[in-house]
Design a protein that fits this description.
single chain; 329 residues; 6 helices; 16% helix
Length: 329
């Protein structure tokens, strides 16, 4: 199973000039406890924009309430249902929720990153920082700024600013500038939107109720261990190329295999609950073999001798459709 762990990359600048906390000094500032941030982020909406030292901008958004979690990072959009733990990829243009069968999403790691961002000032701001006397506006949020400047000369210095929202006590923006030998690098992140009103968040999730649900196919780079592919024995010859299972039908591709090996493989299917089947060469010059089991699962082997390739199709079918296909051989 493919496990997707999308950890938001913090863009704090590292350099020869450090802005880390001086442990020998006592803090003059009183900040919110990190546990309070954790408590607040049970029902919330947050959108954050990040700028790294290479000038690349990225955006992420996380929304959560009692029933759902929404995660967006650039073009990646996920919706997670808490009760079922179902993970959906979202296509807003087509209004589709695609149920993922082979992906896992490490939501807690991403949420922990948000918590670390909002509480970063708690550990980083020390007596080297100067507190602003007036509030500074960050988007629509009134913030208090804490600024530190450390300078060796005009070519070697560092600057760090934290903007702390005056109501929540959360850090809503951070800016870093580091210059080493005249080469200056800047990075920043800032909260573009944040709210915790349950009704607004419920409204955000409600639009997904009308989205059509589709199931993502199973994909395999080795012989299938789930889905329709498990009904068949692994082909002992040739080179496995890929497998894909759509639920109602599946396809397995094998290359570098001979016709004799295909016929020998077809003969083994009777040992797995399939009928003896019927084989022959079609008008296109391909060798085709069709068989089925008592549940009317039809298996169609199609072999192309010009490139030594075998396509194995497994289809949930009917007796009438199977008879129709076999009559063509």
């Amino acid at each position: 199973m493919k496990k997707i762990v999308i950890i938001l990359i913090l863009i704090f600048t590292l350099s020869l000039v450090s802005c880390n906390k001086d442990k020998q000094e006592e803090e003059d500032f009183e900040f919110i406890e990190k546990e309070k941030i954790v408590e607040t982020l049970s029902i919330f909406y947050i959108k954050v924009e990040m700028l790294n030292v290479n000038g690349k901008t990225s955006t992420f958004r996380i929304v959560e309430n009692e029933n759902n979690i929404y995660y967006e990072y650039n073009d990646t959009l996920y919706l997670i249902e808490k009760e079922t733990n179902n993970l959906y990829s979202i296509d807003d243009e087509l209004k589709i929720k695609l149920l993922e069968q082979q992906k896992e999403f490490d939501y807690q790691s991403n949420k922990n990153t948000v918590i670390d961002l909002l509480g970063e000032h708690i550990e980083k701001v020390d007596n080297s920082y100067q507190k602003s006397t007036n509030n500074v506006l960050v988007n629509d949020f009134n913030c208090i700024s804490y600024e530190s400047n450390k300078k060796v000369d005009n070519k070697n210095y560092s600057k760090s600013i934290y903007y702390v929202e005056d109501t929540t006590g959360f850090c809503f923006k951070q800016y870093s500038e580091v210059c080493s030998l005249g080469n200056a690098k800047t990075s920043s992140w800032e909260v573009k939107e944040f709210y915790t009103e349950p009704s607004k968040i419920e409204e955000f999730f409600s639009k997904y109720d009308s989205y059509n649900v589709e199931v993502a196919p199973l994909e395999f780079d080795v012989w299938p261990t789930t889905g329709l592919g498990v009904l068949l024995p692994e082909c002992p010859n040739g080179k496995f190329m890929f497998g894909i299972d759509y639920g109602e039908n599946a396809l397995i591709s094998v290359n570098e295999i001979t016709l004799l090996q295909v016929k020998n493989y077809a003969a083994t299917l009777v040992n797995y609950g399939f009928e003896s089947g019927k084989g022959g060469t079609n008008l296109g010059g391909q060798y085709v073999f069709i068989t089925y089991n008592s549940d009317f699962i039809m298996v169609r082997l199609s072999y192309a001798s010009d490139d030594y390739s075998l396509a194995i199709k497994i289809i949930k079918s009917t007796e009438a459709e199977i008879n129709k296909e076999m009559s063509k051989i």
